């Protein structure tokens, strides 16, 4: 009895949200106090062949890879040079314990990793890649702005070449089997969205909205007068209808979002070199010295900016 009343209420609420578009309620607040209840360290091999050694929680705590004070600070270990015969530089890959389908994720970030050889990412991943899909919210390499936002999934998901977004689309086929797994990416038009400029402007906010009809990503630099008040305040509910044109817009015109994207975990990681950052074209064209692997092995002083600092992450459903 109780259950059916609850179900009716729930479906009424869900119907109301669909009808009115973009209102969502806060479901998870992830800050320094709750981070370890919500995210787990994954000491796994990097599938993109990075010069990295992802560590477990205990190692992360003892090496200062994670520091929980007023913020959530996640850093590579840049305390010294590393052996050329070892696996790579100690760093972090953290994954949310929960999975999300229709949701908003807001990341309030003070600092992001940059420096030669760095390849940081804030992203979401489903089961059985590429079938459950991947949404890259923040990604780039070797200090080079702007931020790149990308979907990767199985065949049968493409994006219209022209769509209502402020960023610049790259490839439009999200199928990982074409274009060497470039996915369907969009470059932000704001240089403050990545790297040194992001940090020197005090960071900012990224937000991603996923529904069964579309995926949208926004970025606001710290002092952007257009930052919505619900984002700025980390409000207990948000309305995406007030957020303006997204930086990246991935509609369902030629992509069934429900069948190409399963429930997702949120992942935050920092790798070095590897398939993208370390490729000879990406590394040398960014003006970085030496080879990527030698640089990452031997120049800890060049990697002092290889850390994320989050004020909070909030999930709305
Ligand atoms: C880390 O992030 C990069 C960039 O998104 C990704 O391609 C790579 O697979 C990630 N590595 C792991 C182990 O998650
Ligand atoms: C999209 O995929 C879902 C899940 O597989 C399915 O239920 C739905 O009918 C599909 N929609 C269309 C328009 O094909």
UniProtKB/TrEMBL annotation:
Matches recorded under InterPro entries: Beta-glucanase-like, ConA-like_dom_sf, Glycosyl_Hydrlase_16
One Pfam family recorded for the sequence: GH16_XgeA
Secretion signal span: 1-21
Name the UniProt record assigns to this protein: GH16 domain-containing protein
Protein species of origin: Dentipellis fragilis
Domain GH16 positions: 17-317
GO biological process: glucan catabolic process
GO molecular function, one term: hydrolase activity, hydrolyzing O-glycosyl compounds
Keywords, in A-Z order: Signal
């Amino acid at each position: 009895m109780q259950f059916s009343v609850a179900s009716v209420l729930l479906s009424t609420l869900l119907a109301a949200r669909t009808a009115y578009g973009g209102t969502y309620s806060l479901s998870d607040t992830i800050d320094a106090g709750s981070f370890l209840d919500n995210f787990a360290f994954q000491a796994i091999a990097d599938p993109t062949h990075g010069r990295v050694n992802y560590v477990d929680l205990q190692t992360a705590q003892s090496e200062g890879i994670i520091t929980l004070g007023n913020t959530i600070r996640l850093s590579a270990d840049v305390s010294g040079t590393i052996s050329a015969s070892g696996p790579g530089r100690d760093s972090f890959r953290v994954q949310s314990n929960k999975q999300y389908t229709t949701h908003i994720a807001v990341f309030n970030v003070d600092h992001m990793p940059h420096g030669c050889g760095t390849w940081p990412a804030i992203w979401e991943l489903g089961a059985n890649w590429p079938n459950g899909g991947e949404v890259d919210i923040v990604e780039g390499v070797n200090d080079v702005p702007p931020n790149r936002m990308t979907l990767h999934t199985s065949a049968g998901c493409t994006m219209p070449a022209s769509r209502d977004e402020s960023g610049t689309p790259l490839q439009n086929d999200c199928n990982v089997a074409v274009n060497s797994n470039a996915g369907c990416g969009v470059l932000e038009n704001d240089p403050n969205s990545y790297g040194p400029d992001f940090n020197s402007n005090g960071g900012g906010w990224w937000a991603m909205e996923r529904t069964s009809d579309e995926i949208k990503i926004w970025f606001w630099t710290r002092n952007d007068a257009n930052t919505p008040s619900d984002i700025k305040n980390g409000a207990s509910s948000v309305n995406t209808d007030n957020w303006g044109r997204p930086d990246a817009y991935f509609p369902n015109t030629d992509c069934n979002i429900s069948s190409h994207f399963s429930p997702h975990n949120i992942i935050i990681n920092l790798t070095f070199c590897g398939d993208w950052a370390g490729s000879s074209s990406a590394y040398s064209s960014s003006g970085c010295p030496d080879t990527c692997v030698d640089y990452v092995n031997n120049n800890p002083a060049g990697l002092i900016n290889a850390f994320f600092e989050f004020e909070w992450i909030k999930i709305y459903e």
